[in-house]
Amino acid sequence: MNKIDLNGRCAVVTGGAQGFGRAIAERFIASGAKVAIWDFDLPMAEKTAKEIGPAVTAFKVDVSDLGAVEKTRDETLKALGKIDILVNNAGIAGVNATVWETDLEEWRKVLRINLDGPFICCKAVVPAMIRQKYGRIVNIASIAGKEGNPNAAHYSASKAGLIALTKSLGKELAQHDILVNAVTPAAAKTAIFDQLTQQHIDFMLSKIPKGRFVLVEELAAMVAWLASEDCAFSTGAVFDISGGRATY
Ligand code: NAD
C-alpha cells in the first residue's frame, strides 16, 4: 500500500459500516487519520469500528434527516475536535424496475438517501470547514450517474444529481481551500448487490472492459488521495474508477 499522509486529520465516512465505506475508513486509519463512521446500522458500525481500531468511532444517524445529522455533527466535533474530511458514501440501490413500473415512493426514497443525504451532510459540515479554512469532501457517485442504467433510473438520477452538487459546491468553496470531488465507480461486489437482480448485475459486468468488478480497496486508495493535501488543485471534478467504462 502506498503511503498517503492523513496524519492529524479527522474524517467522517457516511455508510462506513461496510462495503466501500468500511474500506475507506480502513485506508484512512492506515494513513494516520481519526475516523467517525456515520451509519444507520449502529450494531454493524460499532462492530466495524472495533475491528478497525480505537481511532474509529461509530455514530448512528440517517444521513437524510437534517436534525439528526446536525446533532451527530456536534457529537463528532466533541469527540474528534474537528472535521477535515467528509466522505458522502452512504447510499442505496433501490428496487430494479423500469421507470413506468417504479413506485413514486421508491423513486423518492432513493433520491432522499442518495442525493438529499450528501446535500444535508455538506450543509451541516461545511460551515465548520470554512471557519478552519480547510476541508476535503469526496462524494461517492457512480458511473450510472453519467451514463444511466436501465431499470435503475432513480439510482442513476440520484448519482447524476450528486455529480452536479459536487460541481456546484466545488465552485462555491474554491476560495476556502475546501476541495469537493466525486468518484464514479463501476460496480463492486458489496452488500448493495443484495438489492439488485442477477440480470442487472450481469448487465453491469458486461459494460466493464476490464471484465471484473472494482475492488473496494481500489476505490479507497483513490478516495484517500482526494482526501489528502496531495490533492491540491482539483475541485468540482469527477474521477472515473470504472475499469474502462468511461463516458465523458
Ligand atoms: P453497502 O450497501 O455495502 O453499504 C452502504 C452503507 O450505507 C451501509 O452500511 C448502510 O447501512 C449505510 N446507509 C444506507 N443508507 C443510509 C442512511 N440513510 N443513513 C446512514 N447510513 C446509510 O453499499 P456500497 O456498495 O458500499 O456502496 C457505497 C456507496 O457506493 C453508495 O453510495 C453506492 O451508491 C456507491 N456505489 C456502489 C457501487 C457498487 O457496485 N457497490 C457502485 C457505484 C457506486
TrEMBL record:
Organism superkingdom: Bacteria
UniProt keyword terms in alphabetical order: Oxidoreductase
InterPro entries named among the record's database cross-references: NAD(P)-bd_dom_sf (IPR036291), Sc_DH/Rdtase_CS (IPR020904), SDR_fam (IPR002347)
Gene3D superfamilies: NAD(P)-binding Rossmann-like Domain (3.40.50.720)
GO molecular function: oxidoreductase activity
Any single Pfam family the record assigns to this protein: adh_short_C2
Bilayer-spanning residue ranges: none
Family designation: Belongs to the short-chain dehydrogenases/reductases (SDR) family.
Protein name, entry field: SDR family oxidoreductase
